[in-house]
Amino acid sequence: MKYNRLFSLALGAMLTVSAVGQEKEVLRLSLDEAQQYALEHNASMQNADLDMKKAELERWKTLSSMLPQVRTGFDYQNMCGYTMNFGGGRSMMSMIPDTILVGGVPVPITIPGAEEASSTESGGIAMNPNGTFSVTASIALTGAQIVGTLLQDISMQMTDINRQQTAQQTRSNVKNIYVSILVMQQTVGLLDSSLANLERLAATAQASVDVGAAEQVDADKLQVQVASMKSSINSSKRSLQALRNSMLLQLGADVDADFELTTPVDQILSVDNATQLLGRGFDLTKNYNYQLLEQSENLARRNVTMAYMDFTPTLSAYYQYSAKTYFGRDEGFNMTPPNMVGASLTLPLFTSGTRTANVKSAKIALQESVNSRRQAEDGLRVQYNQLCYDLASALETYDIQSRNLDVTRRVFDNLTEKYRYGRASSLEVTNASTDIISAQSSYIQAVMSVISAQTALEDLINVE
Predict the structure, then answer these.
(1) Is the pLDDT of residue 251 over 80?
(2) How far is C-alpha 277 from the geometric centre of its chain's CA atoms?
(3) What's the topology of domain 25-65+144-310+352-461?
(4) Distance between CA atoms of 287 and 460, rounded to whole angstroms?
(5) SS3 sequence of 275-336
(6) CA 290 from centroid of its chain's CA atoms
(7) Which pTM was predicted?
(8) What is the tens place of the pLDDT at every residue in 55-80?
(9) Distance separating alpha carbons of residues 286 and 283, to the nearest angstrom
């Protein structure tokens, strides 16, 4: 018994330690911390960073094509004992003179392996195994390569703008969900408080019915209102959980992680900041969409230059070093030069109008880009005016709904107090509880409208 008890205590201690070790870490995040966490862990943001690295590599690939290219190789040949024979028993050596005149003086010619070659039965040349080691350095320059490097620079700039735009969208999404969670938490708290009051009133009404001081229908009405309030609370909690799941996705955190939001709604929802935003003005050049259109126009302009580059020549040059080695007894007949240098200049003359058509097509694409940018300028200005109107309207609605919620709550508290002393009917209390649920819903919508309109305007004018 004693050992069993000790074993049970030890097992309980181990389970307790294991449970403590498995407690989930709670992320305590302010709004700024949540946005920064998302920028570091969000999958879309990580892909945007990878796109930037990929654009840098593509630019280097284009640039490296303009730099010297060096190749090396080794070539081995073995003709399996073959002997070169010129027919009729006449060897190649017999075709070579014994001497040559150099400045009028006869100079004897000596070829390694000549004696062995002449002593062969057929009078041919033995083809000994050989290997050749070579190193070749080459370079080729065209106008298209130079323009292609400039195109890659523009592509990198566009990729960087896309990355910044993704970061902006990530911060905005986190802010919207952050505020939604805080507002929904407030709503659940307010509904819980109203539910507690209704449950006390329902209990009081039922007690009055039991002593014959009230009718059952009055108590039933309050019970129905209690059930309706509970349903609203459960619906709000489900919405809150959905928002928390969305926040985890935006943060890029583990789906089983837990977090706590530390920045209050009042600190995020600043009416003064929103009002100042309305008078800030709009600089088109700071808008990311407009910047992309500008870069697209620059890209189209470079494509016109690229089309003209088909008319330019291609310059290439190379240097080759070769070292040939024979693996037989003799050196053999070596006709491979050790060093070789070459250059060429190629100019296209006639392509049946293809190059001219490419130039015209590139110019048309450029004009389309210019037209798109000009149209976007007008569209962005109209969008700015509309977003300013939406924000001003949302601020007015928020002010009205804030006061309405305060009045509705005070009316509900006043009626519940009167009902306790028999100076208000159950119908008035029921209507008041319905009004407070409606007022809270309208308040949530007003808060989210302000945050959404303010965030959209900040994104448009690119507020840092």
Answers:
(1) yes
(2) 29
(3) Outer membrane efflux proteins (OEP) (1.20.1600)
(4) 6
(5) HHHHCCCCCHHHCHHHHHHHHHHHHHHHHHHHHHHHHCCEEEEEEEEEEEEECCCCCCCCCC
(6) 19
(7) 0.73
(8) 888 888 888 888 888 899 998 888 78
(9) 6
